[in-house]
Recover the amino acids of this structure.
Protein backbone atom coordinates (compact mmCIF):
# COMPACT_ATOMS: atom_id res chain seq x y z
CA UNK A 1 0.00 0.00 0.00
CA UNK A 2 3.05 2.25 0.08
CA UNK A 3 3.64 2.09 -3.68
CA UNK A 4 2.43 4.27 -6.54
CA UNK A 5 -1.14 3.16 -6.01
CA UNK A 6 -1.12 4.67 -2.52
CA UNK A 7 0.47 7.88 -3.77
CA UNK A 8 -2.26 8.20 -6.37
CA UNK A 9 -4.79 7.71 -3.62
CA UNK A 10 -3.20 10.53 -1.61
CA UNK A 11 -3.20 12.91 -4.56
CA UNK A 12 -6.90 12.33 -5.17
CA UNK A 13 -7.85 13.39 -1.67
CA UNK A 14 -10.01 16.46 -1.39
CA UNK A 15 -7.89 19.23 0.04
CA UNK A 16 -9.21 22.24 1.87
CA UNK A 17 -7.14 25.36 2.20
CA UNK A 18 -8.04 27.09 5.46
CA UNK A 19 -4.88 28.96 6.45
CA UNK A 20 -6.58 30.76 9.28
CA UNK A 21 -8.07 27.91 11.26
CA UNK A 22 -6.62 27.86 14.73
CA UNK A 23 -5.48 24.69 16.45
CA UNK A 24 -3.57 23.67 19.53
CA UNK A 25 -0.95 20.96 19.62
CA UNK A 26 0.86 19.07 22.35
CA UNK A 27 3.61 16.50 22.50
CA UNK A 28 2.66 12.99 23.53
CA UNK A 29 2.12 12.77 27.30
CA UNK A 30 2.69 16.51 27.65
CA UNK A 31 0.05 18.81 29.10
CA UNK A 32 1.71 21.93 27.68
CA UNK A 33 -0.06 23.05 24.49
CA UNK A 34 1.17 25.34 21.74
CA UNK A 35 -0.78 27.31 19.18
CA UNK A 36 -0.84 26.75 15.46
CA UNK A 37 -2.85 27.73 12.41
CA UNK A 38 -3.77 25.22 9.73
CA UNK A 39 -2.14 26.02 6.41
CA UNK A 40 -3.28 22.89 4.58
CA UNK A 41 -5.40 19.94 5.54
CA UNK A 42 -6.32 16.67 3.89
CA UNK A 43 -8.00 13.55 5.13
CA UNK A 44 -4.83 12.06 6.59
CA UNK A 45 -2.36 14.92 6.78
CA UNK A 46 -2.13 18.44 8.14
CA UNK A 47 0.32 21.27 7.72
CA UNK A 48 0.22 24.02 10.31
CA UNK A 49 2.13 27.15 11.20
CA UNK A 50 3.53 27.33 14.73
CA UNK A 51 6.21 29.33 16.61
CA UNK A 52 9.70 28.15 15.67
CA UNK A 53 10.92 28.15 19.25
CA UNK A 54 8.61 25.28 20.22
CA UNK A 55 8.94 23.19 17.08
CA UNK A 56 8.24 19.42 17.23
CA UNK A 57 10.82 17.14 15.58
CA UNK A 58 10.24 14.84 12.61
CA UNK A 59 8.99 11.48 13.83
CA UNK A 60 7.57 12.96 17.02
CA UNK A 61 4.02 12.03 18.01
CA UNK A 62 1.74 14.99 18.69
CA UNK A 63 -1.91 15.55 19.41
CA UNK A 64 -3.73 18.25 17.46
CA UNK A 65 -6.82 19.91 18.84
CA UNK A 66 -9.04 21.51 16.23
CA UNK A 67 -11.51 24.18 17.29
CA UNK A 68 -9.42 24.65 20.40
CA UNK A 69 -10.98 28.00 21.27
CA UNK A 70 -14.54 26.89 20.64
CA UNK A 71 -17.11 24.92 22.60
CA UNK A 72 -16.43 21.51 21.04
CA UNK A 73 -12.72 20.88 20.40
CA UNK A 74 -11.71 17.74 18.48
CA UNK A 75 -8.52 15.84 19.24
CA UNK A 76 -6.50 13.73 16.76
CA UNK A 77 -3.14 11.97 16.91
CA UNK A 78 -0.46 12.80 14.32
CA UNK A 79 3.18 12.09 13.66
CA UNK A 80 5.47 14.89 12.43
CA UNK A 81 6.92 14.37 8.95
CA UNK A 82 8.88 17.57 8.42
CA UNK A 83 9.24 21.20 9.49
CA UNK A 84 10.36 24.19 7.44
CA UNK A 85 10.77 27.94 8.11
CA UNK A 86 7.71 30.11 7.47
CA UNK A 87 8.94 33.56 8.49
CA UNK A 88 11.20 35.09 11.13
CA UNK A 89 9.11 33.76 14.02
CA UNK A 90 7.16 30.79 12.65
CA UNK A 91 7.68 27.44 10.92
CA UNK A 92 5.41 25.12 8.97
CA UNK A 93 5.02 21.63 10.38
CA UNK A 94 3.76 18.80 8.19
CA UNK A 95 2.34 15.72 9.87
CA UNK A 96 0.39 12.58 9.08
CA UNK A 97 -2.48 11.08 10.95
CA UNK A 98 -1.39 8.36 13.36
CA UNK A 99 -4.60 6.50 12.57
CA UNK A 100 -3.74 6.39 8.88
CA UNK A 101 -0.27 5.00 9.67
CA UNK A 102 -1.83 2.23 11.75
CA UNK A 103 -4.18 1.51 8.88
CA UNK A 104 -1.26 1.33 6.44
CA UNK A 105 0.49 -1.22 8.65
CA UNK A 106 -2.67 -3.33 8.78
CA UNK A 107 -2.99 -3.19 4.98
CA UNK B 1 -25.86 51.88 3.34
CA UNK B 2 -25.26 48.32 2.28
CA UNK B 3 -25.62 45.75 5.01
CA UNK B 4 -22.40 43.78 5.41
CA UNK B 5 -23.17 40.15 5.90
CA UNK B 6 -20.15 37.98 5.54
CA UNK B 7 -20.54 34.33 4.61
CA UNK B 8 -17.29 32.48 4.95
CA UNK B 9 -16.27 28.90 5.15
CA UNK B 10 -14.27 28.17 8.26
CA UNK B 11 -13.61 24.72 9.62
CA UNK B 12 -15.87 23.40 6.89
CA UNK B 13 -18.85 25.28 8.29
CA UNK B 14 -20.59 28.34 6.96
CA UNK B 15 -20.79 31.05 9.56
CA UNK B 16 -22.85 34.19 9.59
CA UNK B 17 -20.35 36.59 11.08
CA UNK B 18 -22.67 39.54 11.48
CA UNK B 19 -23.15 43.13 10.52
CA UNK B 20 -20.05 44.64 12.07
CA UNK B 21 -17.97 46.88 9.85
CA UNK B 22 -14.91 45.26 11.42
CA UNK B 23 -14.03 41.99 9.69
CA UNK B 24 -12.87 39.42 12.22
CA UNK B 25 -9.82 37.43 11.19
CA UNK B 26 -10.87 33.83 10.72
CA UNK B 27 -7.89 32.67 12.78
CA UNK B 28 -9.05 34.51 15.90
CA UNK B 29 -8.18 34.51 18.69
CA UNK B 30 -4.55 35.39 17.92
CA UNK B 31 -3.24 35.19 21.51
CA UNK B 32 -4.63 33.06 24.29
CA UNK B 33 -3.31 31.86 27.62
CA UNK B 34 -1.59 28.95 25.83
CA UNK B 35 0.56 31.41 23.88
CA UNK B 36 2.03 33.07 26.98
CA UNK B 37 5.32 31.30 27.83
CA UNK B 38 5.25 32.28 31.51
CA UNK B 39 2.69 31.39 34.12
CA UNK B 40 -0.32 33.72 34.26
CA UNK B 41 -4.07 33.75 34.78
CA UNK B 42 -5.48 35.38 31.69
CA UNK B 43 -4.92 37.68 28.71
CA UNK B 44 -6.76 40.98 28.44
CA UNK B 45 -5.90 43.34 25.58
CA UNK B 46 -2.95 44.94 23.83
CA UNK B 47 -1.43 48.16 22.62
CA UNK B 48 -0.31 47.92 19.01
CA UNK B 49 2.30 49.60 16.85
CA UNK B 50 4.24 48.83 13.69
CA UNK B 51 7.98 49.34 13.97
CA UNK B 52 10.58 48.59 11.29
CA UNK B 53 8.20 46.28 9.47
CA UNK B 54 7.32 44.29 12.58
CA UNK B 55 3.99 44.35 14.34
CA UNK B 56 4.42 44.89 18.06
CA UNK B 57 1.82 44.15 20.71
CA UNK B 58 2.21 45.17 24.33
CA UNK B 59 -0.12 42.72 25.98
CA UNK B 60 -1.85 43.16 29.30
CA UNK B 61 -1.87 39.83 31.12
CA UNK B 62 -2.83 38.96 34.68
CA UNK B 63 -0.12 37.22 36.66
CA UNK B 64 -0.86 34.31 38.97
CA UNK B 65 -1.16 36.67 41.92
CA UNK B 66 -3.87 38.64 40.16
CA UNK B 67 -2.02 41.81 39.15
CA UNK B 68 -1.84 42.99 35.58
CA UNK B 69 1.57 43.16 33.89
CA UNK B 70 2.74 43.65 30.30
CA UNK B 71 4.27 41.17 27.85
CA UNK B 72 5.72 41.75 24.41
CA UNK B 73 4.58 39.94 21.26
CA UNK B 74 6.00 40.29 17.75
CA UNK B 75 4.79 39.34 14.29
CA UNK B 76 5.69 39.70 10.64
CA UNK B 77 2.16 39.53 9.25
CA UNK B 78 0.13 41.14 12.04
CA UNK B 79 -1.86 37.96 12.60
CA UNK B 80 0.49 35.35 14.05
CA UNK B 81 2.38 36.56 17.10
CA UNK B 82 5.16 35.14 19.22
CA UNK B 83 5.16 36.22 22.85
CA UNK B 84 8.50 36.85 24.60
CA UNK B 85 9.46 34.37 27.33
CA UNK B 86 9.33 36.91 30.18
CA UNK B 87 7.16 39.94 31.06
CA UNK B 88 8.59 43.21 29.74
CA UNK B 89 7.00 45.57 32.27
CA UNK B 90 5.76 44.83 35.80
CA UNK B 91 4.56 47.07 38.64
CA UNK B 92 7.38 49.31 39.79
CA UNK B 93 9.22 48.81 43.06
CA UNK B 94 10.46 52.40 43.04
CA UNK B 95 8.55 55.38 44.34
CA UNK B 96 6.46 57.22 43.49
CA UNK B 97 5.27 54.54 41.08
CA UNK B 98 5.37 51.62 43.51
CA UNK B 99 2.56 53.01 45.67
CA UNK B 100 0.26 53.60 42.74
CA UNK B 101 1.06 50.44 40.76
CA UNK B 102 0.67 48.11 43.74
CA UNK B 103 -2.40 46.45 42.23
CA UNK B 104 -1.04 46.33 38.70
CA UNK B 105 -0.47 48.15 35.43
CA UNK B 106 -3.30 48.02 32.90
CA UNK B 107 -4.57 48.91 29.43
CA UNK B 108 -1.45 50.25 27.68
CA UNK B 109 -1.66 52.45 24.58
CA UNK B 110 1.44 53.07 22.47
CA UNK B 111 1.91 56.28 20.51
CA UNK B 112 4.91 57.24 18.43
CA UNK B 113 5.59 60.95 18.51
CA UNK B 114 8.81 62.94 18.01
CA UNK B 115 10.55 59.65 17.18
CA UNK B 116 9.84 58.15 20.61
CA UNK B 117 7.41 55.42 21.58
CA UNK B 118 5.29 56.48 24.56
CA UNK B 119 3.18 54.09 26.58
CA UNK B 120 0.25 55.59 28.42
CA UNK B 121 -1.18 53.10 30.89
CA UNK B 122 -3.30 52.82 34.00
CA UNK B 123 -1.51 52.52 37.32
CA UNK B 124 -3.82 50.71 39.68
CA UNK B 125 -3.68 50.74 43.47
CA UNK B 126 -5.86 50.88 46.57
CA UNK B 127 -6.30 54.57 45.76
CA UNK B 128 -7.93 53.77 42.45
CA UNK B 129 -6.76 53.93 38.84
CA UNK B 130 -4.69 56.84 37.58
CA UNK B 131 -2.75 57.49 34.39
CA UNK B 132 0.99 56.99 34.01
CA UNK B 133 3.43 57.49 31.16
CA UNK B 134 6.55 55.58 30.12
CA UNK B 135 8.73 55.55 27.03
CA UNK B 136 10.73 52.94 25.16
CA UNK B 137 13.07 52.56 22.21
CA UNK B 138 13.15 48.78 21.94
CA UNK B 139 9.90 47.61 23.64
CA UNK B 140 12.01 45.47 25.98
CA UNK B 141 12.92 48.15 28.48
CA UNK B 142 10.65 50.97 29.66
CA UNK B 143 11.56 54.25 31.32
CA UNK B 144 8.80 55.62 33.50
CA UNK B 145 8.27 59.35 32.99
CA UNK B 146 5.55 60.35 35.45
CA UNK B 147 2.19 59.68 37.02
CA UNK B 148 0.07 62.06 35.00
CA UNK B 149 -3.36 62.18 36.58
CA UNK B 150 -5.13 61.90 39.88
CA UNK B 151 -7.45 58.99 40.55
CA UNK B 152 -10.00 58.10 39.31
CA UNK B 153 -8.87 58.38 35.72
CA UNK B 154 -8.12 55.80 33.00
CA UNK B 155 -8.32 55.13 29.25
CA UNK B 156 -5.51 57.56 28.51
CA UNK B 157 -4.27 57.73 24.92
CA UNK B 158 -1.69 60.15 23.58
CA UNK B 159 -2.25 61.83 20.22
CA UNK B 160 0.49 61.13 17.64
CA UNK B 161 1.37 64.81 17.23
CA UNK B 162 1.12 68.08 19.04
CA UNK B 163 -1.87 70.31 18.35
CA UNK B 164 -1.26 74.05 18.49
CA UNK B 165 2.12 73.36 20.08
CA UNK B 166 0.86 71.16 22.90
CA UNK B 167 0.70 67.44 23.53
CA UNK B 168 -2.84 66.12 23.69
CA UNK B 169 -4.33 63.06 25.32
CA UNK B 170 -7.70 61.45 25.81
CA UNK B 171 -8.61 60.51 29.33
CA UNK B 172 -11.66 59.33 31.23
CA UNK B 173 -12.30 60.74 34.69
CA UNK B 174 -14.98 58.68 36.38
CA UNK B 175 -18.10 60.09 37.96
CA UNK B 176 -19.57 57.31 40.04
CA UNK B 177 -20.14 54.36 37.74
CA UNK B 178 -20.19 56.45 34.59
CA UNK B 179 -17.48 58.18 32.61
CA UNK B 180 -17.05 60.25 29.49
CA UNK B 181 -14.22 60.98 27.06
CA UNK B 182 -12.17 64.10 27.77
CA UNK B 183 -9.09 65.75 26.28
CA UNK B 184 -6.26 67.31 28.24
CA UNK B 185 -3.20 69.26 27.11
CA UNK B 186 0.44 69.46 28.17
CA UNK B 187 3.64 71.29 27.26
CA UNK B 188 5.96 68.67 28.74
CA UNK B 189 3.98 65.38 28.91
CA UNK B 190 4.13 65.58 32.72
CA UNK B 191 1.84 68.43 33.73
CA UNK B 192 -1.61 68.26 32.16
CA UNK B 193 -4.51 70.70 32.11
CA UNK B 194 -6.99 72.58 29.96
CA UNK B 195 -9.24 69.56 30.28
CA UNK B 196 -12.60 69.54 28.58
CA UNK B 197 -15.17 66.93 27.74
CA UNK B 198 -15.21 65.60 24.17
CA UNK B 199 -18.32 63.49 24.24
CA UNK B 200 -20.59 61.79 26.71
CA UNK B 201 -22.70 58.68 27.00
CA UNK B 202 -25.94 58.48 25.04
CA UNK B 203 -28.88 57.29 27.08
CA UNK B 204 -30.70 55.86 24.08
CA UNK B 205 -27.73 54.08 22.48
CA UNK B 206 -25.40 51.11 22.98
CA UNK B 207 -22.90 53.38 24.79
CA UNK B 208 -25.32 54.56 27.45
CA UNK B 209 -23.43 53.65 30.67
CA UNK B 210 -19.84 54.82 30.12
CA UNK B 211 -17.38 55.41 27.33
CA UNK B 212 -13.63 55.71 26.98
CA UNK B 213 -10.95 56.08 24.34
CA UNK B 214 -9.62 52.81 22.95
CA UNK B 215 -6.85 53.09 20.34
CA UNK B 216 -4.79 56.28 20.03
CA UNK B 217 -6.46 58.43 17.36
CA UNK B 218 -5.68 58.05 13.66
CA UNK B 219 -5.13 61.26 11.71
CA UNK B 220 -7.17 61.43 8.51
CA UNK B 221 -7.97 64.17 6.02
CA UNK B 222 -11.42 64.46 7.59
CA UNK B 223 -10.20 64.69 11.18
CA UNK B 224 -9.04 62.50 14.06
CA UNK B 225 -10.64 59.10 13.81
CA UNK B 226 -11.05 57.60 17.24
CA UNK B 227 -12.08 54.04 18.01
CA UNK B 228 -13.69 54.09 21.44
CA UNK B 229 -15.43 51.64 23.70
CA UNK B 230 -18.91 51.99 25.05
CA UNK B 231 -20.62 50.08 27.82
CA UNK B 232 -24.26 49.27 28.28
CA UNK B 233 -25.23 47.88 31.65
CA UNK B 234 -27.70 45.13 30.94
CA UNK B 235 -29.65 42.89 33.31
CA UNK B 236 -27.08 40.11 32.83
CA UNK B 237 -24.07 42.40 33.19
CA UNK B 238 -22.20 44.95 31.10
CA UNK B 239 -21.81 44.66 27.32
CA UNK B 240 -18.63 46.27 25.94
CA UNK B 241 -18.75 47.34 22.30
CA UNK B 242 -16.56 49.48 20.04
CA UNK B 243 -17.57 52.54 18.08
CA UNK B 244 -16.01 55.37 16.05
CA UNK B 245 -16.06 59.12 16.18
CA UNK B 246 -14.48 61.85 14.05
CA UNK B 247 -12.96 64.87 15.79
CA UNK B 248 -11.75 68.21 14.49
CA UNK B 249 -8.04 68.18 13.65
CA UNK B 250 -7.28 71.49 15.35
CA UNK B 251 -9.81 71.18 18.17
CA UNK B 252 -10.21 67.52 19.18
CA UNK B 253 -12.91 68.45 21.69
CA UNK B 254 -15.16 69.24 18.73
CA UNK B 255 -17.07 66.20 17.44
CA UNK B 256 -17.61 66.23 13.67
CA UNK B 257 -19.44 62.92 13.44
CA UNK B 258 -20.21 59.99 15.70
CA UNK B 259 -21.39 56.60 14.56
CA UNK B 260 -24.81 55.65 15.81
CA UNK B 261 -24.09 51.92 15.80
CA UNK B 262 -21.01 50.00 16.97
CA UNK B 263 -18.26 48.89 14.63
CA UNK B 264 -17.80 45.71 16.66
CA UNK B 265 -20.10 43.99 19.12
CA UNK B 266 -19.54 40.68 20.93
CA UNK B 267 -20.91 37.86 18.77
CA UNK B 268 -18.34 35.08 18.51
CA UNK B 269 -17.86 32.39 21.13
CA UNK B 270 -14.49 33.81 22.22
CA UNK B 271 -16.09 37.25 22.70
CA UNK B 272 -19.09 35.89 24.60
CA UNK B 273 -17.43 33.43 26.96
CA UNK B 274 -14.48 34.13 29.23
CA UNK B 275 -13.48 35.77 32.49
CA UNK B 276 -15.79 38.67 31.64
CA UNK B 277 -18.16 37.70 28.85
CA UNK B 278 -19.63 40.01 26.22
CA UNK B 279 -16.54 42.19 26.00
CA UNK B 280 -14.66 43.55 23.00
CA UNK B 281 -12.12 46.13 24.16
CA UNK B 282 -9.37 47.67 22.05
CA UNK B 283 -6.20 49.47 23.09
CA UNK B 284 -4.55 49.64 19.69
CA UNK B 285 -5.07 49.87 15.96
CA UNK B 286 -2.55 50.09 13.13
CA UNK B 287 -3.31 52.03 9.96
CA UNK B 288 -1.69 50.53 6.86
CA UNK B 289 -1.30 53.45 4.49
CA UNK B 290 -0.56 51.29 1.44
CA UNK B 291 -3.85 49.41 1.64
CA UNK B 292 -5.83 52.04 3.56
CA UNK B 293 -6.69 49.26 5.95
CA UNK B 294 -6.94 49.45 9.73
CA UNK B 295 -5.90 46.42 11.76
CA UNK B 296 -7.63 46.70 15.09
CA UNK B 297 -6.44 44.54 17.98
CA UNK B 298 -8.92 43.86 20.71
CA UNK B 299 -9.33 41.88 23.87
CA UNK B 300 -12.24 39.46 23.86
CA UNK B 301 -14.10 38.41 27.00
CA UNK B 302 -11.04 39.48 29.06
CA UNK B 303 -9.54 36.13 28.04
CA UNK B 304 -7.81 36.45 24.66
CA UNK B 305 -6.65 38.88 22.00
CA UNK B 306 -8.12 39.09 18.51
CA UNK B 307 -7.63 41.11 15.36
CA UNK B 308 -10.17 42.62 13.02
CA UNK B 309 -9.75 44.72 9.91
CA UNK B 310 -11.67 47.47 8.16
CA UNK B 311 -11.04 49.90 5.38
CA UNK B 312 -10.29 53.34 6.76
CA UNK B 313 -12.89 54.81 4.43
CA UNK B 314 -15.56 52.49 5.82
CA UNK B 315 -14.83 53.67 9.35
CA UNK B 316 -14.88 57.31 8.27
CA UNK B 317 -18.14 56.76 6.43
CA UNK B 318 -19.63 55.19 9.52
CA UNK B 319 -18.93 58.37 11.51
CA UNK B 320 -21.07 60.49 9.22
CA UNK B 321 -23.97 58.15 8.47
CA UNK B 322 -27.44 59.42 9.12
CA UNK B 323 -29.07 57.42 11.89
CA UNK B 324 -32.26 57.03 9.86
CA UNK B 325 -30.31 55.28 7.10
CA UNK B 326 -29.08 52.46 9.32
Amino acid sequence: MNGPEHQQDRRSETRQSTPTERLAWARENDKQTSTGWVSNIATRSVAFVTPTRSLPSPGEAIELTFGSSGPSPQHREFRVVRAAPYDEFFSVVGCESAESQEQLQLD
Amino acid sequence: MSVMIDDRVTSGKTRLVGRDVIHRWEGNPIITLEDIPFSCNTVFNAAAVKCQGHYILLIRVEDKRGRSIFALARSEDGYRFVVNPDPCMVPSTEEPFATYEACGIEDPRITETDGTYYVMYTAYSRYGPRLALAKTDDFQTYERIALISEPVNKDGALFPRKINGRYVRFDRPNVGSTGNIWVSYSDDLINWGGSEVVMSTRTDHWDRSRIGASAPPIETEQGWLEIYHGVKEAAAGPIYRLGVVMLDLENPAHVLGRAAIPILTPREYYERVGDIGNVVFSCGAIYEEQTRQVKMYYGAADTCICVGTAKLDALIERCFEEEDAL
Q: What stands out?
A: Chain B has a mean pLDDT of 93. The first strand of chain B starts at residue 7 and ends at 10. Chain B touches chain A through 24 residues (CB under 8 Å). Chain B is about 5% helix and 50% strand.
